[in-house]
Design brief:
By secondary structure, the protein is mostly helical. The chain has helices at residues 3-21, 57-92, 97-110, 114-125, 129-153, 159-166, 171-207, 219-226, 235-262, 264-270. It has a single domain (3-270), classed as Orthogonal Bundle (MetI-like fold), CATH 1.10.3720.10.
Length: 271
Amino acid sequence: MSRNLILGALLSSLVLLAALLSFFWTPYDYAALDIPNKLQPPSIQHWFGTDHFGRDMFSMIMIGARTSIAVALVAVGIGMTLGIPLGLMAAARKGTWLDEVIMRGNDLVFAFPSLVIAILITAILGAGAINAIIAIGIFNIPVFARITRGAALSLWEREFILAARVSGKGAARISAEHILPNVANLLIVQGTIQFSLGILAEAGLSYVGLGAQPPTPSWGRMLADAQTMVSFAPHLALIPGLAIIVTVMGLNLLGDGLRDWLDPRIRVARA
């Protein structure tokens, strides 16, 4: 087992544990205002200090982890649920009008930066966590469709697929029973990568005010609130920034480790 996989799993588990724990316990009420103790540096009473309203930063980071993970997880789920079947259909109907429609639709989405699309969608539908999920999920659909199609095309000419076709199985059944299990490893790795990108996208949307709305804490909005106070309260920006860095780095290391672990060719090459 690679060091990347172990370190990535450790960091990701730490963030996930904080998010799960926030459902049952936080050191303080994240919405409780304590103006006399505002902008306190990290201490024994407040491990990560307090913000400009006197709220406990550690409690807000825990709730923010829950927000980021929920938004990214559902958004990636939307992308996989819709994108993988589209990719399988495009590969099974290679060269037909269906394949062209699916792939040209993918190209249309990829023509614009993901954050721009997310901002456009949330600007139309309104700010909020639900609309952020929709926006990020829509961009994930063509990502998984293209990855699935590319991997599936290389399998459709393999002998075991030809044998399945000769036995009378249709394209849909072959895709479900033979193609999908053989591309699942690749999709799992891509899912971890998109998960980290989803957390970044959620932070970006919250930073510009289009993500989760107050009083629900969000790492991106915590950074936005801190930008005018960096000179005299640097912990307000440093702590949520580090939370984003640790989470994204952990997921990327996890994805890299999973790729090495699930692909025997890479394991042999590195042995």
